[in-house]
Design goal:
Blueprint lengths: L9 E7 L4 H12 L6 E8 L2 H8 L6 E6 L5 H11 L4 E4 L5 E2 L3 H11 L5 E10 L4 E2 L6 H7 L12 E3 H6 L12 H9 L5 E13 L4 H4 L1 H15 L8 H12 L9 H12 L5 H18 L1 H4 L2 H7 L8 H8 L6 H8 L1
Helix pairs in contact: 5-12, 10-11, 11-12, 12-15
């Protein structure tokens, strides 16, 4: 049995800008109190003196502070931290989240065991204004690669990256992106099944109104369109307009309704048939379509009709798990479809 030696340096990088004191303190302490202690904690104070004063109260020599006199944004802040990081691995953290005690230990163990993985994420439990679990049911490297064609399935503050991979390939965040920097980066560098997700909760993710994703929804939507446009050519299919339509639907940008549901599934099937691994694409695409249908209130009441007309959506076992665990949507008629 492999025993993890606690001698691999991990660089935790965390930008902060005007973070409420209570949140910032809990975030810092969750890293300093990790069961895996060989870390350097690079905190980027992105133009907020109040944040800097809070951080300076911690007399831990593992903390390194990068000070900005003005707000320069997340991408530039993260790039500066990566440039000075000395660790074998880089772990992302947000200044209002809480890393669970064994998070870094679990990720280092996983990365040491799986040398082909360059980026590793985890699940997260939301705290604050929502209590849901943020996770994906397609966690294997090949499945993650497919999902990144249309949506960001990696929870940014849970991610651990191989520093050598970033440096040797001159990889950094795109500083032109005001938000969605992570999705743009993942879509750009995912290749040869080098992403994976550990299906365990590693982070308490705070949901509140001050988050960038809440404030800049329109900008985020525009940038998501740009990322999806760049991904179209990764799909082997003669009609790029159809590919774009499907990817936008799978991303949640375009709507599935009762009038186009059958047509969308037929389009998905047509595109799936042209891919190198039809079974894998079918699993990932069907799971996503099913998620969208069952989480859309207008469609949920027609779920029995939809599933009877599109029985192929029930071809994968984890759909039953998805019904129970994600949506807590128990319907006797759906169970009959599984066991008939």
């Amino acid at each position: 049995m492999n025993v993890l030696k606690n001698d691999i340096l991990v660089s935790v990088i965390m930008p902060t800008y005007n973070t409420p004191e209570e949140y910032l303190k809990k975030s810092i302490e969750s890293i300093l109190n990790q069961s895996y202690s060989n870390i350097e904690f690079i905190i980027i104070c992105d133009g907020c003196i109040e944040d800097e004063k809070i951080i300076e109260n911690y007399k831990d020599n593992r903390i390194k502070i990068i000070r900005h006199t003005k707000n320069e944004g997340i991408a530039k802040s993260l790039n500066k931290a990566i440039d000075i990081a000395k660790g074998k691995y880089i772990a992302r953290m947000d200044s209002d989240d809480i890393s669970l005690k064994n998070r870094i230990k679990m990720q280092v163990q996983y990365m040491e065991k799986n040398k082909n993985i360059m980026v590793c994420g985890m699940d997260a439990k939301c705290i604050g204004e929502t209590k849901r679990i943020k996770s994906t049911y397609n966690i294997r490297p090949q499945e993650v690669e497919i999902q990144l064609l249309y949506m960001n399935c990696m929870i940014h503050p849970t991610v651990m990256l191989r520093k050598s991979f970033l440096d040797e390939n001159n990889i950094r965040y795109n500083e032109d992106f005001q938000c969605s920097q992570d999705f743009e980066l993942w879509a750009r560098i995912v290749d040869d099944h080098n992403f994976a997700i550990i299906p365990k909760i590693g982070l308490l993710h705070r949901a509140h109104k001050n988050q960038i994703s809440q404030k800049k929804t329109e900008i985020q939507k525009k940038l998501r369109y740009e990322i999806i446009n760049a991904n179209i050519k990764k799909i082997k299919y003669e009609n790029e307009k159809d590919v774009k339509n499907l990817l936008l639907i799978l991303s949640g940008s375009n709507e599935i309704n009762m009038s186009n549901c059958k047509e969308i599934i037929e389009l998905a099937n047509s595109i799936i048939e042209k891919q190198y691994n039809t079974k894998l694409y079918k699993k990932v695409f069907y799971n996503r379509i099913f998620q969208i249908i069952i989480s859309t209130k207008k469609l949920r009441k027609h779920i029995i009709k939809i599933l009877k007309e599109n029985a192929e959506l029930l071809n994968f076992n984890n759909l039953e798990y998805l019904i129970y665990k994600t949506f807590k949507f128990v319907e006797e008629n759906i169970l009959n479809l599984f066991y008939k």
